[in-house]
Amino acid sequence: MGSVIESHLHFADEAFKEVRLEHVELVSSEFHDCVFFHSSFAGSVFRHCRFVNCLFRESDLSLIEVPESRFTHSRFENSKIIGVNWTEAHWPKAGLANPISFSKCAISHSTFMGLRLQSIQIRDCVATDVDFREADLSQADFGGTDLSESIFGKTNLSETDLSRARNYRIDPGQNILKQARFSLPEAMSLLHSMGIVLLHGD
Q1: For residue 116, what is the enclosing H or E element?
Q2: d(CA 90, CA 33)
Q3: Most C-beta atoms within 10 A of its C-beta, which of 151, 160, 201, 202?
Q4: In the 3-class helix/strand/coil scheme, how is 135-182 assigned residue by residue?
Q5: The predicted structure's pLDDT at residue 195
Q6: Closest Cα partner for 7 from 23, 35, 27?
Q7: In the predicted model, is pLDDT for residue 108 greater than 80?
Q8: Domain boundaries in the chain?
Q9: Mean pLDDT estimate for the chain
C-alpha cells in the first residue's frame, strides 16, 4: 500500500494497493501518474480532486460522487463503476480527446448526459441503462460493450465504432451517425427504430 490518502494532498507516481476508502469525502487532492489496484472507494465523494494519467484496476468505485473533479487521460480496467453521475465532474468546455477510458468495466446506471467526450473508449463493458443523451461521443469506441437499455438522443456518434457493440437502441433520426460503424445483425435495430419491416426473399 502506498501513502495514506487524505484531503488536500498531492500524489505523484504512487501505487496504491488494497485501499479501502469507502463512504468518505476527499477534498482537493491531486493524483498524477498513480495506480490504484484492488481498491474500493464505493460511495465516496471526490470533491475538487484531480486525476491525471491515473489507472484504476480491479477496483470498486460504485456510487462515487465527483463534484468539480477532473479526470484527464485516466483509465479504468476490470472495475465496477456503477451509478456515477459524470456530469458533476469538471470537463473542458472545448472537449478533450480520449479523456477517460473504460475496459472490461461495469458502468451501468451512470450518466454522461451532455458531456463532450470525443474519442472516449468504452470497450468490453457492461453499460446497462446509461444516459448518453446530448453527449458528443464522436470517434468513440464501444467495441464489445453491452448497451442494453442505454439512452441515446441528440447524441453525436460521428465516426464512432459500434461494430462490436450489442443490444443498443439508437434512432438514426434522433442522433448524428455520420460515418459511424455498425455490423450485422445488431445494426438491424437501426431499421426497426425507423419503422421499417424487412422481409426475407424467396
Answers
A1: none
A2: 19
A3: 160
A4: CECCCCECCCCECCCCECCCCECCCCECCCCECCCCCCCCCECCCCEC
A5: 47
A6: 27
A7: yes
A8: 1-75+83-90, 97-196
A9: 91
pLDDT of residue 186: 72
d(Cα 69, Cα 188) in Å, to the nearest integer? Answer: 39
CA-closest candidate to residue 123, choices 176, 74, 161, 82: 161
Provide the pLDDT for residue 94: 59
Same CATH fold assignment for domains 1-75+83-90 and 97-196? yes
Report how far residue 138's alpha carbon sits from residue 22's, in angstroms, rounded to the nearest whole number: 34
Question: Domain 97-196 belongs to what architecture?
Answer: 3 Solenoid (2.160)
Q: pTM above 0.70?
A: yes
pLDDT at 38 over 60: yes
* DSSP assignment string, 21-82: --S-EEES-EEES-EEES-B-TT-EEES-EEES-EEES-B-TT-B-TT-EEESEEEES-B--
Cell match 472495475: residue? Answer: 79
Q: Looking at residues 82-100, what average pLDDT do you find?
A: 83
Q: Residue 192 — φ and ψ, nearest 5°?
A: -60, -40
Q: Cβ distance 33 to 12 under 8 Å?
A: yes
Question: Across residues 120-134, what is the average pLDDT?
Answer: 97
